[in-house]
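**Protein of interest**
===
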Amino acid sequence: MNRFKKSKYIIVLFVVVLVVSVFLVTTQSSSVVTKAGDGISLVDRIVQKPFQWLSSVKSDLGRLTRTYNENETLKKELYQMKKETNEADSLKEQNEQLRQLLDMKSKLNATKLIASDVIMRTPATWKQELTIDAGSQQGVTSNMLVIAGGGLIGSVGKIEDNSTVVNLLTNAENTEKISVKIQHGSTSIYGIIIGYDKEKDLLKISQLNSSSDISQGDKVVTGGLGNFNATDIPVGEVESVTHSNDYLTREVLVKLQSDSMNTKVVELVGNPS
């Protein structure tokens, strides 16, 4: 009987110890799991940081690349628009010059007319000369004058088979002696183009055949004398008249009718010698 009671106590004690152990183990396990979870979460955050940064950098680079590509596309479109606008402006200007040549054609007192395009002009000699795409094969001769924009701009210089160099009136070193006629009322006064004043941008005329009055605003046209025999081509208007020290000669300064700076098409005018 005593042995049974002892065994019973031992079993009860074992159960109590087992229950207490399980409770303690469960409590400790929960704490360990919680701490382990915190550690894993910390490691996860540390590991994720570089990947988050790389993802952000990748996103920024993507936006930068898209922006760059958009800018390049816009630049190309803008360049194309400017190019088309410039081409349209150039064609518009050329058409206007052609219209002016057609308007003058019926008024010119000449039997020989040759239309031509400007094919070459260098910055160094921009105001001295230009080259056109008509030469001896097209009938160009040395006695022809060159008009554009409603008035005289120069004369024929060096002639090749299919091109010609034009001596411009704005060439201060031009030695061509082109005769002109100054209209003062009903009076005609003849003279010779002797050069160009670069500082004043005015044509110089001298060797006048008359001492008749000349006033500012008088019209000047070609005279048709000498080698260049085409007459009545508009040259310009009288700006001023100056006398030499001995008052024996006068020099007339003329504002040109036509501006040759942006000439694209010309007409060569002449009469058989």
User: Anything to note?
Assistant: The mean pLDDT is 79. The first strand starts at residue 112 and ends at 120. DSSP finds one helix and twelve strands in the chain.
